[in-house]
Design brief:
The protein is mostly helical. It has helices spanning 4-18, 25-37, 41-47, 60-75, 80-109, 195-216; strands at residues 131-134, 138-141, 146-148, 154-156. 29% of the residues are buried. Keywords: Hydrolase, Membrane, Transmembrane, Transmembrane helix.
Length: 217
């Protein structure tokens, strides 16, 4: 699964692009920390088993703050965020939400799955797959496959549906097993699970470093 280092790196790359003129070291730090925050449900899962990749890995962690920010910025006569932090703060807040959705929740959803609608609907969905173009089958994708139910309603294929918080566990270095681990259980703290992710990390952190050095020039 993507590590915190990968998520934060990807967030930094997106932030460097989306912040535009509002970019500065403080802004990009806020964006990257916001993205890292999502993985704090690792520790929630230690005390409430099954809630890692559920408590903060869901659409509500983005949509609820997003709706509040939209209401504050466009529907209120006086925006609290803009009044206190200016357009700078408003831009940083939006970019932070976008990076949380794209660089963390979505990335994990397409890499072993997340509990997308928890706690309203307790079910993990895994959209791991691939996309390819062939000379016989045309464009093929296996990320999201739909099937028709008995009443003719389209539904997500069973291949994408995993268990619930009651029977699903994602191992981490802090919580390698569901329940108390054995004394000799290896605790693995992943950094980059593939060469591709390692290159993404290097490129992303390099981009953020370059933008910060450019800012101070």
């Amino acid at each position: 699964m993507p590590s915190v280092a990968v998520h934060v790196a990807f967030a930094g790359l997106l932030g460097a692009a989306l912040l535009g003129e509002e970019f500065d070291p403080r802004a990009i730090l806020v964006v990257m920390v916001a993205c890292a925050f999502v993985d704090l449900d690792t520790f929630v899962g230690i005390y409430v088993p099954g809630t890692h990749r559920a408590a903060f890995h869901n659409v509500f962690v983005v949509t609820i703050p997003g709706l509040l920010l939209l209401w504050d910025g466009w529907l209120r006569e006086t925006s609290v965020v803009r009044t206190r932090f200016g357009q700078y703060g408003y831009r940083v807040a939006w970019v932070s939400l976008v990076t949380v959705l794209v660089a963390h929740v979505s990335l994990d959803a397409f890499f072993n799955g997340v509990n997308v609608f928890w706690p309203v609907h307790d079910r993990f969905y895994d959209f791991s797959g691939r996309m390819l173009l062939t000379d016989q089958r045309g464009l093929v994708q296996t990320f999201l496959e739909l099937e028709t139910t008995a009443d003719g309603t389209p539904a997500v294929s069973d291949s994408a549906i995993r268990g619930t918080t009651g029977d699903t566990h994602y191992a981490t270095g802090f919580d390698p097993t569901r329940g108390d681990p054995e004394p000799d259980t290896e605790r693995i703290f992943p950094v980059a699970s593939s060469g591709e992710l390692f290159v993404v990390m290097l490129a992303s952190y390099g981009t953020v470093l370059y933008r910060c050095l450019e800012y101070y020039r």
